Amino acid sequence: MTTTDNKIIDQYIKNHPDQAIGLIEDFDDKDIAALLEALPIQISAAILTRIVSFKATKVLGFLDHAVASQIISSLPEKKAGNLLIRCDKSIRHEILRLLKIELRESIEFRLNFSKDAVGSHMETHVVTFKTGYKIADCLDLVKSNLQGVGSQIYVLNDHDELVGYVQLKDLLADHQDRNIHSLIREKPLTLLPAMSVEDLLAQWESEFAQLPVVDSEGTFLGIVSKRSIIEYAGNDEIQRKPVFKAGSALSELYRIGFISLLGTAPESNLKNRLS
């Protein structure tokens, strides 16, 4: 497929996501894998995370392991873990083997917990401060790691034990050359990774959008966001509303449009067409 083809398909998926994904889900698992291998990694990752999880897991098994590892690497850690936990053990092993060490170890830690445990919903790649940091150092760290910064940034001692947290708004408003310790607030409710999601929801009455996860010794492990927990508890499979399925006139129009982009029908073998 040419760069132009990729851009057209990318635009089609962005403009008509439900229709496009609905059509792709009707493909054979092997054909979806062939399609994903022919598309840019970011587009493939977007498709894989939108199709229903049981099918996404099967597709992952048909993908070239190198491509699968690139897709997994491009996903948020939680989504990557949720996909891999459903995979066949041998396939999961091959994909994990190709990941960077830090990401592999983080996902493997997550996989130690059932999907009903807090540990499987934990984000480990988050910015933290040490008690000895200056405010200027903290600001530099925030600026260089914007994706890993939340509204609360946790502060650890030299043993990586949780001491408390700093509100991002307080940090941004403070321009004095002093130690971060002056901005530290008392640590909120802490969670253990083996805690059940059900128990967490029963206790989560605070205004915090996220809570810290620690081990039995108090060592900081990561965070869990309230939004991700509520989404999981409300619907394990984040269901999409039914869209135009095969048989409806509008569905056939979208099918024709999608075929014109791919140059093939869903029933055909995409691997031969896209090679």
Explain what you see.
The model is unreliable at 235-256 and 265-275 (pLDDT under 50). The chain folds into two domains: 3-113 and 238-274, MgtE N-terminal domain-like (MgtE N-terminal fold, Alpha Horseshoe); 128-234, CBS-domain (Roll). It is α+β, with helices and mostly antiparallel strands. The longest helix has 14 residues, at 249-262. The protein is built from 15 helices and six strands. The radius of gyration is 22 Å and the shape is globular.
Report the uncertain regions.
235-256, 265-275
Structural class: alpha+beta
The gross shape turns out to be globular
| Count of all domains | 2
Largest sheet: 4 strands, mixed
Determine and state the CATH class of the largest domain: Mainly Alpha
Arithmetic mean pLDDT: 78
CATH superfamily of the largest domain, by name, is MgtE N-terminal domain-like
Sequence of secondary-structure elements = HHHHHHHHHEHEEHEHEEHHH
- What is the total tally of β strands? 6
* Radius of gyration of CA atoms, rounded to a whole number: 22 Å
Compose a concise summary of this entry.
The protein is built from 15 helices and six strands. The protein has helices at 3-15, 17-24, 29-38, 41-50, 53-62, 65-74, 77-84, 89-97, 101-111, 135-144, 168-173, 197-203, 226-234, 249-262, 270-274; strands at residues 128-130, 152-156, 162-167, 185-186, 210-214, 220-225.
